[in-house]
């Protein structure tokens, strides 16, 4: 059984995870975190989260894509919210995701950074 | 690198055109200044009007051999009509049978680069063409270099902008949480985000300080004072300064190698080099690891080697290491703060001594950075 209140946040940037975690917790969710693909898979197996929020840009440019694809293959019913934005640490521009890239991303929702929590909350409510 | 330049031959006498073409057909000249060789292709037209048309075509000739006395408009009129815009960076060599100083002066005033009196030998023609080719290739290389420098500078500023913007965004997001009282009214609930904010601001301050250091080095404004220094003494003071940072993670610092090795150097620069290396060796080490500073010398140079027992690097990571703002991002480095400028600064410092930096590394076992400072560079 999945826990309807547990959300998994995946990103290698602690300053992406922390504010999101605090806001979700304040809204009554339980939050688990993972900072790479392996941790994400292990956490999904162990904690059975109800949804995943992940950043597209992680340590390697394709990590986010790959992770999303793998999660959808193993857990087709697990809702994924993908967050995209400027990868400030690498300096690579990723302002907008093109239509073609969108079709490759298997996420249920794609949100652009900076994300507004109200919007994220609405999407979560809709998906869960 | 090899270049091929197009020469447009403008002459109403067919014999002249073919002669010039023959002289240039299998001619290759070596340009030592530009470190390249140049060969030529030729185009031929028999009037000034046709020459103007050729210059307005898609492929503008690089060099124009322009006869002055032509059936329609004269060579100088061709120059007048083309103007500097029409010529672009093409170079014009004026040909005239009625060589006189007045034509030469007028042609030069209209933008001609050189002048060759008729009749001329193939060798004389090649000589002026080679001179023009040299000038053309060098000025194109200089322009390309300037454009590349501008590009690198813009790229640097662009990445720097991102690096400065990132912590601001993070701190803003944390301040928003505080303003909205997201975690309730109790202050201690906010300790973690205040802590993270301070860490990110510290990182930003370090980036700005690194940037100022780098600018000072680049502009050569830093006043250097070369004096006789004892390297082991500098190493000892570096180790002392770094001791608290190392002790926090149970890392031991050792100084090995030659005692009381002296060299002529700026003590602040040597300190910066060692600080830079030792602080990296601590940052990228494992807990309870060790850092060794080894001072050595051989016939040509003094060497400063700093070894750690840390996470090490793959060959691919090692190759990217010295680029500006390059930070090796992987699971092992994700919590290590850095500006990505430290090794760029190190490289510049070592260049002041005409020295070099090399890295040996094994992933999971550790890295050794070796700085060689040639004695002649002192």
Low-pLDDT stretches of chain A are: 87-96
- Please tell me how large the radius of gyration of chain B is: 32 Å
The value of Rg of chain A in angstroms is: 13 Å
The averaged pLDDT of chain B comes out at: 89
Question: Strand order, biggest sheet of chain B?
Answer: 2-3-1-4-5-6
User: Structural class given helices, strands, pairing of chain B?
Assistant: alpha/beta
Q: What is the string of helix and strand elements of chain A? A: EHEHEHEHEH
Order of helices and strands of chain B: EHEEHEHEHEHHEHEEHEEHHEE
Quick gist of this model?
The complex is a heterodimer of chains A (128) and B (378). Chain A is built from 5 helices and 5 strands, in the order E-H-E-H-E-H-E-H-E-H.
Structure commentary:
The complex is a heterodimer of chains A (128) and B (378). Chain A has 128 residues and is of the alpha/beta class. Chain A has one domain: Response regulator (Rossmann fold, 3-Layer(aba) Sandwich). Helices cover 41% and strands 23% of the residues of chain A. Chain A is built from five helices and five strands, in the order E-H-E-H-E-H-E-H-E-H. A five-stranded parallel sheet of chain A has the order 2-1-3-4-5, sandwiched between helices. In chain A, helix 1 links the parallel strand 1 and strand 2. The longest helix of chain A is centred in the first third of the chain and has 13 residues. Chain A is globular, with a radius of gyration of 13 Å. The two termini of chain A are 14 Å apart. The mean pLDDT of chain B is 89. Chain B has ten helices and 13 strands. The radius of gyration of chain B is 32 Å and the shape is elongated. Chain B has a six-stranded mixed sheet with strand order 2-3-1-4-5-6, with helices on both faces. The interface between A and B is medium-sized, with 18 and 26 residues.
């Amino acid at each position: 059984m999945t826990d309807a209140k547990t959300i998994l946040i995946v990103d290698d940037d602690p300053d992406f995870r922390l504010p999101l975690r605090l806001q979700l917790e304040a809204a009554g969710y339980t939050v688990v975190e993972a900072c790479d693909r392996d941790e994400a898979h292990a956490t999904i197996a162990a904690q059975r989260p109800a949804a995943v929020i992940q950043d597209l840009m992680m340590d390697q440019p394709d990590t986010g894509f790959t992770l999303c694809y793998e999660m959808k293959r193993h857990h087709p019913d697990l809702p994924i919210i993908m967050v995209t934005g400027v990868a400030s640490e690498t300096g690579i521009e990723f302002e907008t995701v093109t239509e073609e890239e969108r079709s490759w991303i298997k996420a249920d929702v794609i949100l652009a950074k900076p994300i507004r929590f109200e919007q994220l909350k609405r999407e979560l409510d809709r998906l869960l | 690198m090899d270049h091929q330049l197009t020469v447009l031959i403008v002459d109403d006498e067919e014999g002249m055109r073919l002669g010039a073409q023959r002289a240039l057909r299998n001619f290759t000249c070596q340009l030592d200044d530009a470190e390249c060789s140049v060969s030529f292709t030729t185009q031929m037209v028999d009037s000034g009007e046709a020459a103007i048309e050729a210059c307005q075509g898609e492929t503008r000739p690089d060099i124009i051999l322009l006869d002055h006395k032509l059936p329609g408009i004269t060579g100088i009129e061709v120059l007048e009509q083309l103007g500097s815009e029409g010529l672009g960076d093409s170079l014009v060599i004026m040909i005239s049978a009625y060589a006189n100083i007045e034509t030469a002066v007028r042609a030069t005033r209209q933008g001609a680069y050189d002048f060759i009196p008729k009749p001329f030998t193939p060798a004389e023609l090649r000589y002026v063409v080679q001179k023009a080719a040299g000038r053309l290739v060098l000025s194109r290389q200089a322009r390309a270099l300037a454009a590349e420098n501008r590009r690198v500078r813009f790229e640097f500023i662009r990445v720097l902008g991102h690096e400065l913007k990132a912590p601001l965004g993070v701190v803003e997001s944390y301040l928003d949480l505080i303003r909205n009282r997201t975690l309730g009214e109790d202050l201690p609930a906010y300790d973690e985000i205040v802590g993270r904010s301070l860490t990110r601001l510290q990182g930003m301050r370090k980036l700005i300080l690194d940037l100022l250091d780098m600018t000072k080095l680049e502009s050569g404004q830093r006043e250097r004072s070369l004096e006789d220094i004892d390297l082991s003494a500098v190493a000892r003071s570096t180790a002392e300064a770094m001791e608290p940072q190392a002790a926090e993670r149970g890392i031991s610092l050792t100084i090995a190698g030659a005692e009381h090795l002296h060299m002529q150097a700026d003590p602040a620069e040597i300190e910066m080099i060692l600080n830079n290396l030792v602080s990296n060796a601590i940052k990228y080490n494992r807990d309870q690891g060790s850092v060794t500073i080894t001072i050595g010398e051989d016939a040509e140079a003094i060497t400063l080697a700093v070894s750690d027992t840390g996470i090490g690097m793959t060959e691919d990571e090692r190759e990217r290491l010295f680029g500006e703002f390059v930070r090796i991002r992987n699971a092992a480095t994700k919590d290590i703060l850095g500006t990505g400028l430290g090794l760029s600064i190190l490289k510049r410092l070592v260049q002041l001594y005409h020295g070099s930096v090399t890295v040996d590394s094994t992933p999971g076992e550790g890295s050794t950075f070796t700085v060689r400072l040639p004695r002649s560079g002192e």
